[in-house]
Amino acid sequence: MARTAEATIERVETAVAELHGVRVRLHWPEGADAGELHLRAERAESPTLGYSFRDLDWRCPLRRPDMGAWHCAGTLRSGRNAPFSLAVVLDASVVSARLARGGSTLALHRAADSPDLVRIDLARVPLAWATALIQQAAPTLQPQQGTLEGRVDVHIAESAPLRIEAGLHGRGLAFDSDDGALAGENIDLAVDVDYRQPGEANVLAVRGTLRGANLLLGAAYLELPTAPIALALDAISEGPGAGWRFPYLRWDDGAALRAEGAVALGADASLRALDLRLHSDDAALLPSRYLSGWLGVAGLSGLRLAGTFDAHVRVADGALAGIDAGLRGVDIVDGRDRFAFTGLDGELRISEGATVDSVLSWRGGSLQAVEFGPARLPFRSARGRLDLREDVAIDVLDGQLRFSGLSLLLPAQGQGMRIESGLAVEALHLGELAAAFGWPAFAGTLSGEIPRMRYADHRLDFDGGLAMHVFDGEVRFGSLSLERPFGVAPSLSADIELEDLDLTTLTEVFDIGQIDGRLHGRFDGLRLVDWQLAAFDGELHTEPRRGVRQRISQRAVQDISSVGDASFAGSLQAQLIGLFDDFGYRRIGISCRLRNEVCEMGGLRSAGNTFTIVEGSGLPRLDVVGHNRNVDWPTLVERVAAAVGGDVAPVVE
Question: What's the predicted TM-score (pTM) here?
């Protein structure tokens, strides 16, 4: 006779989970060696492991061979998710379950002689299966791919706090976070984990080996090698809403980087405290493995390092409290060759408290194409400031740059790092500067004094100004400022004044024929963005000077004319010009107001769309007139071969 039993159970409690809204039906046909078990549950929850499932449905043939343990294996479904294969074995001495899908298996075992221990064995289990467990410790993390193998022991004694011990090996792991600030892929990680939950606290200890990974941790991006990296951490969270403390951290990446220390994070994962010691025997490995993210944000992608360094970094109450750095034979070279320092040696110590002294030196370096000599920098630090103890002079371009009163203030109370210094520029030779940049050769010197320059909020401002003594005259620079000097799209602003330059020498140097006279002018509000001219109000003009003749050569006239109308060289006027070597002029003047890549041109005088560039004098008299006042700046840059010109159509009158 067939028998059927049905039951409705409000709640079933097991060692690791609770089932709610349970309905069980067992049908055993007469004479059959197996019954038909059908179990449904509205939801299953595991507060310990963080799991929650809904609409569970399991069907299986229930057997008890030779009156031994009960066996039941069948298909388990949960809502619309892909089904699992679930096999359960029950008897007086053991409870075991095996959950499988494809080649992935999770096996649970609980023996009667150790009822407080639940053992879980994993074989090729997808990381996604561990989502709930991972989010117990890190709620914002989203596991993406990869597999886990190993063993997890869950200790659930009523008289002791929850404890989970695990030995796991993850391959091809990947994850990200809800806000995109954390991500990782290609992770091969073998770890031993000890997690405890005394009261509301969480206590975690991890020891393991990492082989290869790409990790995004905020602004940091790590591209780690397949060679093993030993890691260890102890972590404590006092309860919901509390941040994590890491009283012990260790990282060993061989010659590249070794680190050991402690960290404390706020409830929002912000850095609250840090005491970390770092050492690298081969700094050349650091940019690609550890620094590329930060360097990219700073506009220093491709930076190259060499040498050995040690560092001790301290943070208190979310603010930098001190740095002790030791450098031995360190080279720093910008990826775009904008700057370089070679042979950095010594110590750099920054203290938030008591006064400390240190000395840092370098053998040489370069800024763009300009090389500079050795320097020794004696520092003193206290209360978060770093000051030069004495002036420092650096040889450059056969002259000197002299820094005085240099002071660096650490970030604090929401303000970024600030730097102040005085700067004296002493007789830099412009001929060497021209040679370094491949400019036409010319002589002169650059001198001046900037009483104070200030760096804050990615902006460098200069008091005072500089003066270049060149072409028997002077070029003065004022209102200097530089934004994002090594960041994205650096921006330079300045006002420039030209006084009494010798046009004869200037035109010879820049090969635009010959103009005799004295040149004056100004460029107000000059602005370069990413080192390209973006705006200025400029004008250049000649002024008579006793004893100086004012003549313009046939070649200079042709160069000025060809800028605006290349066909002019074949006209009748050009043939007449060819009869004379040079011409007298009364005045030369040209102006440009650059905005949005359009240059609004002007000259000595304007009428409608024309403007006079050269006003002739004597016989033969020559006037050069432009006929287009609005000029496309990129086109003008391509066509200008001299200090005057534009996309104009000059006319000889």
Answer: 0.75
